[in-house]
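A.,

Following up on our hallway conversation. Structure tokens first:
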């Protein structure tokens, strides 16, 4: 997936620049630059593999570690203590 600069800005600002999952500070300029401090990626809250939408409401900023560990897991399987089963809107957890 590729994102234009407006989309990346929107996703990053959604959390004020922190990983949606673990809360680590992300560096906007290090988007996709694995190995760089604050590197981040766009995660699909509901994975595409589970019919999640490739739409802004389903995009959250994630550090590489979280995005890798989450992989194709549904959010309530990735973090069962945080996300309610069937929850499809990350807006409820911002
Ligand atoms: Zn993280």
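Then the amino acids I'd put at each of the 94 positions:
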């Amino acid at each position: 997936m590729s994102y234009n600069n407006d989309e990346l800005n929107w996703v990053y600002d959604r959390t004020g620049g922190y990983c949606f999952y673990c809360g680590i500070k992300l560096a906007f300029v290090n988007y996709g630059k694995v190995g760089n401090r604050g590197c981040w990626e766009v995660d699909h809250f509901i994975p595409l593999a589970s019919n999640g939408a490739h739409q802004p409401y389903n995009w959250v900023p994630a550090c590489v570690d979280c995005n890798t560990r989450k992989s194709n897991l549904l959010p309530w399987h990735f973090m069962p203590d945080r996300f309610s089963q069937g929850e499809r809107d990350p807006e409820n957890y911002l």
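The chain is about 20% helix and 10% strand. Curious whether your intuition agrees with the design.

B.
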